[in-house]
Amino acid sequence: MSNLLELRNVSKVYQRGLISPHANIALRDMSLTLREDEPTIMTVAGESGSGKTTLAMLLLGFITPTTGEIIYRGKNIVSLTGKDRLAYRREVQAVFQDPFAVFNPFYTVDHLLTVPIKRFKLAKSKADARNRMEEALTAVGLRPEDILGRFPHQLSGGQRQRINVARALLLKPRLLIADEPVSMVDASLRANILETLRNLQRDHGVSIIYITHDLTTAYHIAKSIIVLYRGAVMEAGDVDRVIKSPQHPYTQLLVDSIPWPNLDQRWGEHPIIAREAGRADGGCPFRSRCPMAMDVCATRPPLFQVKPNQAAACYLHAEQPEIIAERLSELLPA
Ligand SMILES: Nc1ncnc2c1ncn2[C@@H]1O[C@H](COP(=O)(O)OP(=O)(O)OP(=O)(O)O)[C@@H](O)[C@H]1O
Which of 181, 201, 227, 234 falls 20 to 30 Å from 48 in CA-CA distance? Predict the structure, then answer.
């Protein structure tokens, strides 16, 4: 079975200045494999400075490994030329943290989407280009008629980030590097973006490397996880296994910092209702009233945090406390 991507003992060392002998090892001896026939979502998690962005830059070919090899569909990306290099640049796309940075304020969204179509000669005509843009926007849950023709300042952060995903999707990528794609998006919109990424994997066969410092969102969408600390892999494996029973002390520390519902907490006379929240079998207790009701809410447990001051908040929708309060008042007897 062929591999889509393989990292073989990849290390990246940054030199600190020309004269200084000090070197900064940003990534150490990292190996991973993504199979071509099994599109998946793999998380790379770690705190600030652990080497996540360095990994993204390496995968995108912006920087080269100091040692080791990055093999994309059987070829070392460092030595790709001609057609192979063009195919790699088209098939490996990225969505970055800042949904604002890639937009030029003087151009409409159409421009952002037209550039890759022209660069990679994707469309046969203007009408074909328009169809492709509309298709990509629809695939990420946006209505083309609401989006096309607008300037960046007329869009929300969540819309911009989904347009970034649509731009990547236009190129029919096989691999998407998503570097902290929800960390600058409002909590209330995180679920939308994560759901969009999951649809990309499920419906469009795109493998995703989801880079984050946030284990909760990692648990939310990924199948497997690699935990990085100071450039080295601390633990790797199935996301359920790693988060539910972390073996390495550093992973345990990261897991312990997740705001987990306190199951012993009581809401007045009533046990905390969020206890079973988000379980695949039971579903989220707020789901029927949630304006953002989506599959993601019903599949993973740690979405709810319950605070001692009787405010309960859904992690993903934490910026909508009033909705949550309303839902809670319905669910809990007075
Ligand atoms: N161009 C560079 N030159 C020298 N050192 C660098 C360079 N880029 C990153 N580093 C160092 O490499 C290490 C890893 O950095 P990297 O940006 O990959 O971490 P990160 O996990 O993405 O952090 P963050 O979450 O804060 O973005 C850090 O110690 C950083 O200071």
Answer: 201
